[in-house]
């Protein structure tokens, strides 16, 4: 007979893992356990004199997003958390649309990414996610020109289509011949890694192969994401110590970082070699983003190793944006489709009507007409945003629209996950998956302001790849749905993973069935 674990023993299980991978958190967790015995039913955050609010954060770490959603719902969309005594940890958690509009748009200049953000996300270098002011403006302007170019858009779509036709559908076809249970999240990560690598570097690493090979670059990215999440929890000064003396999670970060740098350096060298062997006309016809940046080196204004670092930072930022967010969006979308068969049926009917010649591979023009599919994707992104939170810090002190003061020392955390679950923002049915909320009475798409729907960020930093992402995701959905049924295994419970990207903790366990 299997022994039954009570709440206390379940709480103790992760401690060995924490001691192994995150020794800096062990002492805090021991204190949290004692408080767990005293406050098992506590719901509201309490800033204890010695430990601040960290005990409550640890007690609910297995369901952090849902717990913080409940807190924000009970506290008028805004909570303040303090860290342990003697530390400067002080952050404001909010999902108030008024605060979002103020920070991300109307007073954007007062909320740069800042030094602390650059330390946490140091692996991104000086890329667009970390950049501020003139550097950010230049990178955004250049990226916008490249990503809205017809040549690049056609290349990105063809890369997606070819990967689906040559790898994804044959793989699913083999899986459909058996009752094998597979992790669809892993498959989507491999798919988007190959596609994003292709239109970023011009090379396909072959991650989505039938034998599911281990790709060092992809594994290093997974490691980086996990560490970045924990960097939001530990004190900023502790991160600086880790950097200075290279221990703890920083040491693990360096190992992954080295792999990423080595692979990108190889891609850059190989791409330069190819471009040097071509004529200027051939080079200008290259559609991948790395080639486009190399060709415009004079405009970038950097030489030698400085230019190589620019290429490394720029392309890695694009890889993070393209691979992880898209795969997370696909994973949660297919999970929701399994739970809402009527939505899946409506999408299939729309594909048959609007792409009658080839619903498996609709053209770009036909993809733009898939209004119901677009609405269903928006609804999925509302409930499960790939980036579940954003954070900012004020350059100058001020009072937010919600009435809470902020300054340079107070970090502002925006819960995008919670925002999609507030009935005051989305109505009493906010927890329901209902694509129709995105459609007008005439059947056209209903626009929602970005300060309310933050899946693609908001204000001047709104995601440049939004249209590209929708096109890519729609192409993947059409190819899979028209050929196969993705059935989640009975009893599976989806839980968000501790990461800066909203992956599933145990993956998405499914069986693939042929569609009659």
Automatic annotation (TrEMBL):
Organism: Rhynchospora pubera
Organism taxonomic ancestry: Eukaryota, Viridiplantae, Streptophyta, Embryophyta, Tracheophyta
TM segment ranges: none
Cofactor(s) annotated in UniProt: heme
An annotated Gene Ontology molecular function: monooxygenase activity
SUPFAM superfamilies to which the protein is assigned, alphabetical: Cytochrome P450
Record Pfam families: p450
GO biological process: lipid metabolic process
Residues that coordinate or bind heme: 463
Protein name per Swiss-Prot or TrEMBL: Cytochrome P450 86B1
Keywords: Heme, Iron, Metal-binding, Monooxygenase, Oxidoreductase
Membership in a protein family: Belongs to the cytochrome P450 family.
């Amino acid at each position: 007979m299997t022994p039954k674990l009570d709440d206390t023993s379940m709480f103790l299980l992760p401690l060995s893992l924490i001691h192994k991978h995150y020794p800096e958190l062990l002492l805090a967790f021991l204190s949290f356990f004692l408080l767990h015995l005293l406050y098992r039913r506590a719901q509201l955050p309490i800033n204890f004199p010695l430990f601040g609010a960290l005990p409550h954060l640890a007690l609910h770490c297995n369901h952090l997003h849902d717990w913080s959603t409940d807190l924000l719902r009970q506290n008028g969309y805004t909570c303040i958390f303090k860290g342990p005594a003697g530390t400067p940890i002080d952050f404001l958690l909010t999902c108030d649309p008024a605060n979002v509009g103020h920070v991300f748009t109307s007073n954007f200049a007062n909320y740069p990414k800042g030094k602390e953000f650059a330390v946490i996300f140091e692996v991104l270098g000086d890329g667009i996610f970390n950049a501020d002011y003139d550097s950010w403006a230049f990178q955004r302007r250049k990226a916008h020109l490249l990503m809205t170019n017809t040549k690049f858009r056609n290349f990105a779509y063809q890369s997606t289509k070819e990967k689906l036709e040559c790898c994804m559908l044959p793989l699913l076809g083999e899986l459909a011949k058996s009752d094998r249970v597979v992790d669809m999240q892993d498959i989507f990560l491999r798919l988007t890694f190959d596609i994003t690598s292709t239109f970023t570097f011009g090379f396909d690493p072959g991650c989505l192969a039938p034998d599911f090979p281990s790709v060092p670059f992809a594994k290093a990215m997974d490691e980086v994401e996990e560490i970045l999440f924990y960097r939001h929890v530990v004190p900023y000064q502790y991160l600086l110590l880790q950097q200075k003396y290279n221990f703890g999670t920083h040491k693990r970060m360096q190992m992954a970082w080295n792999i990423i740098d080595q692979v990108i350096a190889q891609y850059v060298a190989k791409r330069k070699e190819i471009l040097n062997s071509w004529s200027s006309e051939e080079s200008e016809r290259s559609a991948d983003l790395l080639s486009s940046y190399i060709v415009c080196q004079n405009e970038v204004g950097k030489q030698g190793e400085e230019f190589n670092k620019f290429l490394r930072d720029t392309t890695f930022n694009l890889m993070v944006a393209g691979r992880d967010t898209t795969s997370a969006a696909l994973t949660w979308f297919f999970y929701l489709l399994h739970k809402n068969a009527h939505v899946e049926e409506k999408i299939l009917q729309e594909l048959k009507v609007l792409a009658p010649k080839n619903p498996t591979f609709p053209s770009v023009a036909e993809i733009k007409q898939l209004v119901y599919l677009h609405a269903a994707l928006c609804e999925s992104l509302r409930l499960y945003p790939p980036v579940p939170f954003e954070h900012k810090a004020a350059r100058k002190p001020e009072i937010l629209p919600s009435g809470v003061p902020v300054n340079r020392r107070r970090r502002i955390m925006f819960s995008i996950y919670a925002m999609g679950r507030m009935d005051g923002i989305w109505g009493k049915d906010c927890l329901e998956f209902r694509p129709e909320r995105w459609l007008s009475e005439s059947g056209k798409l209903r626009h929602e302001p970005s300060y309310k729907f933050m899946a693609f960020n908001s204000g001047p930093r709104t995601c440049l790849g939004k249209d590209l992402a929708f096109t890519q995701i729609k192409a993947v959905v059409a190819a899979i749905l028209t050929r196969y049924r993705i059935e989640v295994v009975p009893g599976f419970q989806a839980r968000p993973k501790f990461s800066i990207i909203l992956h599933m903790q145990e993956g998405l366990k499914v069986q693939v069935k042929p569609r009659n």
